[in-house]
Amino acid sequence: MSKRRSDWQTRPQARIRKWFQQGFTALDDEIINQISQQTIQQPEVSQMMEAQREAMDTRRYERSLALERLERHELQAWVRTRGRKAIGRVYVALALAMAVLMIFFLLETVAHMPRFGDPNAPVTNEVTERYITRGVEETGAVNIVAGMILDYRAFDTLGESTVLFIAASAVLILLRIDRRKDGTPVQELIAAESDDRHYEPRADRILQGSVMVLTPIILLFGIYIILNGHLSPGGGFSGGAIISAGLILYLDAFGFDKAGRFFTYKTFAWVSFFSLSFYALAKAYSFYMGANGLPSGIPLGTPGAILSGGLIMPLNIAVGMVVSCTMYIFYALFRKGGL
Amino acid sequence: MQLLYENLEQTVAVILFGIGFTILLLQRNLIRKIIGLNIMDTAIYLFLASMGYISGRKAPIVVDGVTEVSAYINPIPAGLVLTGIVVSVSFTGILLALTVRLYRRYNTLDIDVIALLAKGEDA
Amino acid sequence: MSFVHIILLGMLIVCALAVSLTRHLLTSLIVYMAYSLIMAVIWMLMESPDLAITEAAVGAGITSILFFVTLKKIRAIREEGSHEQAEK
Description:
The complex is a heterotrimer of chains A (339), B (123) and C (88).
Chain A: H1 2-10, H2 12-21, H3 27-41, H4 47-111, H5 126-139, H6 144-152, H7 154-175, H8 188-194, H9 205-227, H10 236-259, H11 265-288, H12 312-336
Helix pairs in contact in A: 3-4, 5-6, 6-7, 7-11, 7-12, 9-10, 10-12, 11-12
Chain B: H1 2-6, H2 8-26, H3 30-52, H4 76-106, H5 111-122
Chain C: H1 3-21, H2 25-45, H3 49-87
Helix pairs in contact in C: 1-2, 2-3
């Protein structure tokens, strides 16, 4: 008990509290103090006085205990009502100060950076020169960025596709609702909560009509971007995202029953498996053959033609398939908890 | 000040980073916290991409067989940022899934209330 | 540094502040979508069309769709709860 008490009393907030309350509630304590000091000042102490003092001490101790309890209770109440607000204000002020300080220091750094658009900045070094001057003849891709991320730095892109696949798996673990063979969910309460399809109009004719026109165009545009990834801006990621947007639009207009005819868990698993393993095998072959402009037996074609760039177009297709499947399954899991 | 104005892209990127950081610290709503994280992401991408820009040059797509360094901007930051964008989408998906799970359990988006309720469950 | 460039960069900061200051969650999501689109335009001006097309498709498209569907899900759960309370 005493240990706890001393702990409590040495804590800073208790001291601040004491300092606050000195003029108001510590009066009894002072009187007791005076009395005890008077008793101490007397030179000859009789037995009775001794007993009295002991009783006084116990009383004082109990009183201080009660006081401490009251103090703690009051402090808690204060924290619960006004203290939280005060602490919140201090926190807000500190957070703002920290952010402003950070911005200030970073701005100080920015002021010493090379100027924006400077051709002699240290970022533009011999690596850039090599990519630009030899990129087309080594990778066969007119778009130097595509040639860079799918040939020179293809290992990086493999890791990125794997990150996407792992993210889809994590969302699958978090949000999936298991269903029996006849379609009734195993966790019925969660399924009833998360199945939000009955909040929207069923078979909206206007939406369906416009989707009938729009979806093929969106899908075609996505395929175009993927296939032209080595010739023009774009590539597997943006094209895959566009295709998945078209699929999501179709799913929203026609519901899960129709979309489920061409996209199930099996589709997702097989497409991801084949795309990722094709990617890995293709790059393994490329690395085995020297990886950097050495003859690999795959004709690069004439730069600018659609069938050029060696492995870049198939790799773009693989990445696009992984991305579109992943995004679509994200959406389906959020909506319904399954496909 | 003049130096900051000349590097306006990077200045704005730093300020955006600070704003995103402040949102992350001060907002108690989980979805706004995720948006703040995304703003920090895009600030970093803006900073990186502005490092690669060279005034007066074109995008790195070879036209008419011109392969001189002085014709194109730096393609390396673009490649790095391209990777970063896709990774940011994946973690946004995971964070939103976690948010849905938290909401399903505690029926609130306020991070403080969730922490209190979780503490009450432990005790 | 052109005039359009400066305006776009200013709008970026305004959008980022508005995300934090708006009262409704849906508004801040829409503002975030606008933020992504402005970012795509800035990348187009900075001669990085690859980034612009990816940001427009992924950042403004898919990320916003994910945010919206999360919001819809949360509303649906809330409405379900209020229905049950009303029935009781």
